[in-house]
Write a structure and sequence with these properties.
This protein is α+β, with helices and mostly antiparallel strands. The chain has ten helices and twelve strands. The longest helix is centred in the N-terminal third of the chain and has 40 residues. The N and C termini lie far apart (about 80 Å).
């Protein structure tokens, strides 16, 4: 008799299990809709970040309830960027959905509507902002560790080498602005740590070279190149490098600290108002650009990936990156 009762109960148990499975799937769907609504409508930066973080980690796979159309993980990063810039009255970068693929892409007005940007996952698992036709990340973003780092190598390749073949220096400077504004907004609104790399404008910032040693013949080549210009190149007092004096009281130093045993070479840019970056010099001064690119093997600035080995190292990374955080 007990076996018969057990057999009679099995169908109802199975039906209940199926009902619960459907309920679970529908609950996931309802939560997904709420997160999308928050992402689209909130004017609070912390709510925006929280919704994005949940969407990035939300698993929509369900055996009983299928979601025929939903966005890719990378799209949520772009939606975060677009909404945050919108909250800061940005009009340079616009985000739109492709009606065929239902993927989101961004355009930057000074580059035209045919140049599309999106996010992808980089080798370290961070979100990488790239041109859809270019694999190099202009910057990498980690929501988990609340950090953003610009990629020096990619900035030079994309804007300086490729960009100047198609656009003016002023157009490219305008194209950089929404990227910097996004970084500034993350820092100001959400306490993200930002490494601007060669976009940093603080006079105290050192743009360290990738190679530890530098042949003085590289500096000699700059001296020769200045012969037919109004710019002057001077040796530093301690014979530890040189200073190129440009217009508008802007100076470019290439030197090492004589008291530092490693003698790490670095660039430094000095201007009266902390407004000029090394990227600006490459963009606006052909003398510096030609010299840098001709000797890039020796002069390339370090371009470190955004890597988090463990929590302890992550905290050390955060401390080091604070030195080049976006200035308030």
């Amino acid at each position: 008799m007990m076996n018969n009762n057990r057999m009679l109960n099995q169908p109802s148990e199975q039906l209940n299990a199926l009902a619960h499975s459907f309920e679970h799937g529908l609950e996931i769907g309802q939560h997904y809709v709420k997160l999308l609504s928050k992402l689209a409508q909130t004017d609070d930066a912390h709510d925006l970040l929280a919704a994005t973080d949940e969407l990035v980690n939300l698993n929509l796979d369900d055996a009983f309830v299928k979601f025929p159309q939903h966005y890719q993980v990378a799209d949520y990063y772009l939606l975060l960027m677009g909404r945050l810039l919108e909250m800061h009255s940005n009009e340079e970068l616009k985000v739109a959905e492709d009606p065929t693929s239902h993927r989101f892409y961004a355009t930057i007005s000074s580059l035209g509507e045919n140049v599309l940007f999106h996010f992808t996952k980089d080798a370290e698992g961070n979100a990488a902002f790239t041109d859809v036709n270019d694999d190099e990340p202009l910057f990498s973003l980690s929501l988990e560790h609340q950090m953003l780092r610009f990629n020096n190598k990619a900035l030079v390749n994309y804007f300086i080498i490729k960009g100047l073949k198609k656009y003016s220096d002023l157009d490219l400077r305008s194209a950089i602005k929404p990227l910097l504004l996004f970084a500034q907004a993350l820092h100001a609104d959400l306490d993200f740590v930002i490494d601007r790399g060669i976009l940093g404008t603080n006079n105290q910032q050192h743009y360290e070279l990738a190679k530890p040693e530098l042949s003085l013949t590289v500096i000699d080549r700059l001296f020769v190149a200045t012969a037919e210009t109004d710019y002057m190149l001077f040796n530093l007092p301690k014979n530890n490098g040189a200073e190129l004096r440009l217009d508008r009281q802007v100076n470019l130093n290439l030197s090492f600290d004589p008291d530092d045993y490693s003698q790490q070479w670095f660039f430094a840019v000095h201007d009266p108002n902390n407004q000029v970056s090394f990227f600006d010099l490459l963009l606006h001064y052909q003398l510096i650009r030609d010299w840098y690119l001709s000797n890039r093997d020796s002069l390339a600035v370090k371009s470190d990936p955004l890597v988090f080995a463990d929590d302890e190292q992550g905290e050390q990374e955060k401390t080091l990156m604070t030195e080049s955080t976006v200035e308030d």
